[in-house]
Amino acid sequence: MTVTPTSTTSDIGVLDAEAALNEAEADFDLEIPEEVPSADASSSRGAGRDSEGVGFTLEDFASLLSKYDYNFKPGDVVNGTVFALESKGAMIDIGAKTAAFMPLQEVSINRVEHLSDVLEPGEVREFFILSEENEDGQLTLSIRRIEYQRAWERVRQLQKEDATIYSEVFATNRGGALVRVEGLRGFIPGSHISTRKAKEELVADFLPLKFLEVDEERNRLVLSHRRALVERKMNRLEVGEVVLGTVRGIKPYGAFIDIGGVSGLLHISEISHEHIETPHTVLNVNDQMKVMIIDLDAERGRISLSTKALEPEPGDMLSDPQKVFDKAEEMAARYKQMLLEQAEEGEPLDVTLD
Q: In which band, very low, low, confident or very high, does the pLDDT at 60 lie, cut at 50, 70 and 90?
């Protein structure tokens, strides 16, 4: 039905309210289409609109809110937004009823003096939930724990790859030196530090390192400087090669020879074809000598040496060590030829010349 206004807005303004309503009802067809639910229908959004149902209590609000609240629990990693930096930590919005709190000591795996150095309001990132809600309904968060877990994952992968890393020494103690790897504290035992410097002078030096032990459960990260140097040196060395070395230490079982910054072992059985009671009867610390490499063990960082293979005649290391020194390259060539012939014939390789 077409509605034709019978009066202007100004006229309606002066009409009695009840008369205006009656006029409107008379002009409009108020019949309700069948497809539109009536006010009594249970599906009607207007159902129950009596005076007692109009109110919305706090209990209703809490019940509704709980339907949309996340079930946060310790160990979860959630996204959050930094919205306030305080002296003792940061307030983080993670969508919970109450803002979560991250203490200053949980901001990073590294030492942080000021929150503003690593965080800024509005920043969105991942957070680790450390604990259940406290009495105020507040959760405690951590970034440090995420960095810690990922650091251990990274060093395990580096160990698996047998990677060489470089790290700065930040302190030393009686047992060795301390470094940081991916933010984790690592230890280099004194026996695995290969340098002529005093340990105390290593602070602030960057050292090449190999992994010896990676144990997250025991919080043990042990590294070797010596292995890294040996591996580097090994890449330029060959079995059968003659090198010039210096005796650095003598033990009952043999002598340690410095060959260009790394140490190789000249075992007592590899000094001469003649029987030797103790290496001290043949060698002295700081002696310079030529030795031949007979084995390179990169996995254990060991270099095995021999002068026995360089003797022109059995026992020359005892009776005429200068002769061994002078003819070292000639004897090494014979040794390499012997190895080649044995390899071609499929015979087991012999590391000595009889």
A: low
